[in-house]
Amino acid sequence: MIYAAVLLGVMLVFFLIFTYTITIPDLQNSAERRVAQSTKIYDRTGEILLYDVHGEEKRTVIPFSEIPRQIKNATIAIEDDSFYSHFGFRPISFLRAVFVNIIRGNFEQGGSTITQQLAKTTLLTPEKTILRKLKEIIVAIKLEKRYTKDEILNMYLNQIPYGSNAYGIEAAAETLFGKHARDLGILESAYLASLPKAPSYYSPFGKHRKELDDRARFTLLRMRELGFLKDEEYERAIKETAKFAPARTQGIIAPHFVAEIRDELNNMLGEDRVEIGGFKVTTTLDVDLQQKSEEIINKYAPIIEKNFNAGNAAVVAVEPSSGGVLAMVGSKDYFDSEHEGNFNVATAHRQPGSAFKPFVYATALKKGLTPDTVVFDVPTEFNPLCTTEGKPIEGVNMEEDKCYHPQNFDEKFRGPVTLREALAQSLNVPSVKTLYLAGLMEALSTAKDFGITSLNEPNRYGLTLVLGGGEVSLLELTSAYGVFANDGLKNHLHMISKIEDSAGNKIFEKEPAPVEVIEKNIARTVSGMLSDNQARAPAFGEFSQLYFPGKKVAAKTGTTNDYRDAWVLGYTPNIAIGAWAGNNNNSPMEKKVAGFIVAPFWHEIMEYALTKYPDAEFGSPDAFPEDKPYLRGEWRGGKEYIIDKISGGLATEYTPEETQEKKVVMAIHSILYWLGRPNDPQFKNWEESVRKWALVNNFFDQSEIIMPKYYDNIHTPANMPKISKINIIPEKNIYKNTETVTLRPAIESGYNIIQVDYFAAGEENYIGSLKKYPFDFVLNLANLSAEGSEIKIRIRAYDNISNRVDYILSIPVSN
After folding, report:
1. Which residue from 287, 462, 475, 733 has the least number of CB within 10 angstroms?
2. Phi/psi of residue 644, each to 5°?
């Protein structure tokens, strides 16, 4: 006790000295300087805080009136229950703390009042010394003389750290509960009031959640004991469960996405303004989809690394109808510095492999080709200075590796294929031909129109462009696929939807400005080709990871020839999702295609997305004009004719459709032949490779002599059956509309009548059919509707060579 008394005396001396020598600045101004309002980045709802830009601190100053009563009471109950009665310093509490510190040999016990804590966090340095503690007491006493209790509590609640880099109650409420302070409930207030004592230790995302729960319950108990809570309020709160906002690893949600937002904000507003301006930034991010994508990537990352030597993965999701980025996972772990986790692969330029093909095929459709246009999937040399065998032409001084004869992924060739089949099955040789027909510059122009900005070296790409010879980003490529999803309308790719200043004034808002970059019919056709599971089944299987039972999802894979990049891009009208796997250092993976590496985790993400963004039906495209045989898929020749299968003669206008058969005069040529381009540099090699294929497969050219010299002579007007009349039994002038009658047709024909059909008025109202003579049909007039005073019946008779005749019968009726 003597030691304590001596110590107290010494402290009193120091008090006298420091009381007159220490001055404090205007705390309101100081607080304004220290508590600079921070720019905050939110998700698309404007409610979930993704990141606070103010250095490492997240803070927002709010008026005392907006701080709910329960957070004020909870704070006083757990931190300083005599706040409104002391003068800024509690001597007994202080002495108790000093005694404990002496016994323990440290300065862990503080005994600080709320006013002392405000002084410490606002004006003083954080070191733990006796001198600084004395300064804290003096400053606290002076603060109490200058400000009211409410002013001190207000400054405290706007300044105190709550953990997760949240400073002040508003930032804490947003960070930990995803809501404003004014919306906090009693239990949530108790949890927040429990944090300042040791924010890191009590963090709800750390290892001591149980200790936090215990402290929050203790806070509620103290609130009840102090009369801040009624018994029923306490009982209700103690039974509730706090629901914290999504955990923020190192204080951030969607770190790659947020990093992009930061860069964009700095470019728009300037970095200094972003740091201290207190802006509210509403983004396009769907937090739920983002976190599900991260979860799935984390699940598959070790699998693809072990099985395929793919050390990284990325995913992007875009909303086609707006252009907004819904999710961005730029690597398997942003915070894995050892493996460059903060490097955003989603924005890096990588070769897309076959994932670039849809833009080439869209360009070909613009040039007049159709999904049924046939190109030959046969070994083809595309360097005109090389032979069809892939060797430099004799006399040409060129290295053999300059010849270009790409292979398909399975090193097989399929002969004639339509553009639909070639795209759906990702066949390389037909795709190179399609690029040549579409035009390199035209294809690059299409890609640029779709929003791909990085392809600016056409001479370097050449015909390899269609196989991924250029470099694009996953972000832009996914957005570009979204243009197909949106019927050819491109919305500007963006991540910020709105910016408000600290006063709530709107200073930026993204306005929709869709631009048609390709005809709707072409966009719908490409979507139809990419969602045609039957067309892609020969290459991927009927139940591949690109298939979703009962749903139409357009999808395309891409794998570079050196296996450094693997992609899957897919979409519905409501969402586009792109996925990538590979290595940041560009080292190759195992020699497996994207269907094995990427498709499983892309499928799982898309499957989840379809529960949030239900798939809609792609619009049906209009038919393309197909006036040329090669545009209709006819690869056997350019001369077509139609015969009647019964007579063998050329079909006439009287030949029934069901007896017609389309024939062709066999002449196997490349599409350049049918396009009339014999002087094209590619003509020789394309034509020779196709002619070789025809010879090996026993297709030989024919002449027009094989065509019939006569016309169909059995389907003629003279041979058509005739219905002279329809006998109505019983025969009378007027029938009651409730009667039943029998119809017996009188038919004349040189061929056997095999069937008679009966229709009520138009052909769509079929009511019956008979196949035996005399073809009597029992008709209940009560089942039919009269037109005025009569009922009309259509009778159609067929003979055994498919001739037919119609007869309209009017039956007079009365009520």
Report:
1. 733
2. -90, 125
Q: Give the pLDDT confidence score for residue 763 in this predicted structure.
A: 61
Name, in order, each residue with C-beta under 8 angstroms of 425's C-beta and a sequence gap of 6 or more. Answer: 417, 535, 536, 538, 539, 540
Residue 705, strand partner residues: none
pLDDT band at 170 (very low <50, low <70, confident <90, very high): very high
- Cβ atoms of 135 and 18 within 8 Å: the answer is yes
R_g over Cα of the chain: 40
* Coil, helix or strand at residue 59: strand
Is the Cβ–Cβ distance between 190 and 223 less than 8 Å? yes
* Residue closest to 92 by CA, chosen among 82, 102, 84: 82
Question: Counting Cβ atoms within 10 Å, is residue 173 exposed (0-12), middle (13-18) or buried (19+)?
Answer: buried
Type of residue at 320: P
Find the largest Cα–Cα distance for the chain. 138
CA 729 to chain centre: 68
CA distances from 38 to 32, 54, 58, 537 (A): 12, 5, 6, 54
Q: What residues contact 657, with CB distance under 8 A and at least 6 apart?
A: none
Helices 428-438 and 440-449: crossing angle in degrees, nearest 10, is 90
Share of the chain above pLDDT 70, in %: 90
- Candidates 707, 733, 714, 754; CA nearest to 812 is 733
CATH numbers and ranges of domains, the chain: 18-239 (1.10.3810.10), 720-814 (2.60.40.10)
- Span 511-527, mean pLDDT? 96
Residue that wins the pLDDT comparison between 14 and 780 = 780
State the pLDDT at residue 134: 76
CB 74 within 8 A of CB 192: yes
> For 245, what's the count of Cα atoms within 13 Å in the CB-facing half-sphere?
25
pLDDT at 106 (0 to 100): 44
Measured in whole angstroms, the distance separating CA 126 from the mean position of its chain's CA atoms is 47
End-to-end CA distance of the chain: 121
How many whole angstroms separate alpha carbon 167 and alpha carbon 203? 14
CA atoms within 13 A on the CB side of 112: 25
Q: How many CA atoms lie within 13 A of 794 on its CB side?
A: 13
Q: Phi first, then psi: what are they for 631, rounded to 5°?
A: -75, -25
Measured CA to CA, the distance from residue 621 to residue 479 in angstroms comes to 22
pLDDT per residue as tens digits for the range 686-732: 999 999 999 999 999 999 999 999 999 999 999 999 999 999 999 88
For residue 104, pLDDT over 60 is answered with no
Residue 801, helix vs strand vs coil: coil
Length of the chain: 815
The 10 Å Cβ neighbour count of residue 83 is 20
Query: Higher model confidence: residue 814 or residue 32?
Result: 814
CA 157 to chain centroid, in Å, comes to 41
Single-letter code of the amino acid located at 310 = A
What does the alpha-carbon distance between residue 283 and residue 654 come to, in Å, rounded to a whole number? 66
Q: Which residues contact 198 (CB under 8 A, 6 or more apart)?
A: none
Q: For the whole model, what pTM was predicted? A: 0.75
Determine the Cα–Cα distance for residues 565 and 285; give it in Å rounded to an integer. Answer: 26
Contact between 788 and 812 under an 8 Å Cβ cutoff? The reply is no
Is 98 a residue whose pLDDT tops 70? no
User: pLDDT per residue over 11-43, tens digit each?
Assistant: 565 555 555 555 555 555 544 444 457 789 999
Beta strand ranges found along 761-803 (DSSP E)? 766-770, 777-780, 790-799
DSSP one-letter string for 7-28: HHHHHHHHHHHHHHH-----HH
The label of the residue with tokens 């190109």 reads 375
- Which strand (E) or helix (H) includes residue 805? strand 804-814
Could you list the beta-strand ranges (E) of 277-351. Answer: 280-283, 312-319, 324-329, 349-350
For all residues of the chain together, what is the average pLDDT? 88
